[in-house]
Amino acid sequence: MIASNILLLLSESVVYFGVMAILLHGRNRYGLGIFVCALGAMHFLKTYLAAVFYIQLPFGIISPGSTVLFSSAASS
């Protein structure tokens, strides 16, 4: 169970990074607005996940919304 939770957390962060990197890479063709809209949607998703979704890891219970999404949304 814990291994599947770690795999879930890692896969979420890889997918999130991939989507945001693709959107940022396409800014010359499509503009920066799509990236900014996606980043704004991630703020809502981050808040929702931090409030309702938690996973058990060996070192405690964490929320993907606060660990995966908050760290990237706060740095931009």
Low-confidence stretches: none
- What is the N-to-C succession of helices and strands? HHHEEH
The span between the termini is: 33 Å
Q: Largest sheet, order of strands side by side?
A: 1-2
| Structural class by sheet pairing and helices | mainly alpha
Global morphology: elongated
- How many whole angstroms does the radius of gyration measure? 14 Å
SS elements, strand count: 2
Overall helicity = over 70%
Proportion of beta-strand residues? 5-15%
Multimeric organization: single chain
Count up the helices.
Answer: 4
Biggest beta sheet summary: 2 strands, antiparallel
Nearest-integer average pLDDT: 77
Descriptive tags:
8% strand; 4 helices; 76 residues; single chain; mainly alpha
Overview of this protein structure:
11% of the residues are buried. The chain has helices at residues 2-25, 27-30, 33-52, 64-75, and strands spanning 55-57, 60-62. Helices cover 79% and strands 8% of the residues. The protein is elongated and about 45 Å long.
Task: Give the SSE layout.
Layout (H helix, E strand, L loop, with lengths): L1 H24 L1 H4 L2 H20 L2 E3 L2 E3 L1 H12 L1
Helix pairs in contact: 3-4
